[in-house]
Amino acid sequence: MAFPATIKFSPTKLPIQFQAFACNPARPFLYANTLSFKQLRAKASTSIDYSNVPIVDKYTTPKKKDYWQWRYGDNPINVYYEEYEKRDSQPSKNLLMVPTISDVSTLEEWSLVATDLLQRDGNGNLRAALVDWPGLGNSDRPKLDYNADVMEKFLVDLISSPGSPISTSDNDLVVIGGGHAATITIRAAKKGLVKPSAIVAVAPTWAGPLPIVFGRDSNMESGYGVLRGTLRAPALGWMMYNVLVSNENAIQSQYKSHVYADPANVTPEIVQSRYALTKKPGARYVPAAFLTGLLDPVQSREEFLDIFAAMEGNVPVLVVSTCGAPKRSKAEMEALRGAKGVAKFVEVPGALLPQEEYPKDVAEEIHKFLQEL
After folding, report:
1. 176 burial type by CB count under 10 A (0-12 exposed, 13-18 middle, 19+ buried)
2. Strand 173-178 relative to strand 198-202: parallel, antiparallel, unpaired?
3. Are 277 and 42 in contact (CB under 8 A)?
4. Residue 40: is the preceding peptide bond cis (ω within 30°)?
5. Domain residue spans in the chain?
6. Sign of the C-alpha dihedral computed for residues 38, 187, 323 and 56 taken in this order
7. Is the pTM above the cut of 0.90?
8. Under CATH, which number does the domain 1-373 receive?
9. Are 278 and 246 in contact, with CB atoms under 8 Å apart?
């Protein structure tokens, strides 16, 4: 449902449950799974003191930056990716690193983790492909009907299509994802659509911001539909998006309160870089789906645990939880501690984006897991 561009924006015309958010631009919908709505990223080169992440140039080739064309129906979509490579005499390992889904999603969150992994001894001839989701980051942002199935199909096609950024290798693939990305990967593996040798789930999430707060009864689902249609509308959609999400104060507030564990790590450069992502043409289409639950891979904790359980004896799974995750997100992560299908459960500093805020800690856990495979 979309609204004509001639309709005037009025927060009081929204379902009553959403009026407070529309009238308070300091409360954007950036992240999943918690009242705190956290999630996403910082700019590696300008955010935190990364002096504790050693980089040995001799181990890596220059980073490749390019686009891969994914075709969804009649829509050709240019998907942005970057490659890192370490050449060694040992057998090679392939990593696919996919970012957490949010309004400001970007593969930059994995850059320092990839660099750290490549410079470590014992990782062999390592190759890492970092890939933006369609509709997010530096990928094209067409007006599609985005949902969890669309994102799952993208992941499956990315892994299986000739000519994709990761299809050139005959070696085992390890998929590393944050937030919803991790859960979408697990769901695809349960269906047998992808067959990685291992999966790393960093701060895994499954519920979008509105459903986890307001629930999923019929009245709320109707309200989500209205909000979704409004956000996708030609002119009114941008107005609503600017109020709810696309403003610097809102992004800074969310990063300091929920996305990062340490507010001191949120710099003006981070805020500016993430704000710029919200201004790209088509930026509101994926968030409209994410905020209202259409990108949720499962609908309950029971389903969440069930898809992980399906990995038992099939795919080794490392779950990386965080010490400072918001209460609701933390509860879902903790449900995976000792759960069937979870080969290893660890905890690192951070909140909803530990791979960006504390890349060395995350890289260390991934490194140890790779050595155990």
Report:
1. buried
2. parallel
3. no
4. yes
5. 1-373
6. negative
7. no
8. 3.40.50.1820
9. yes
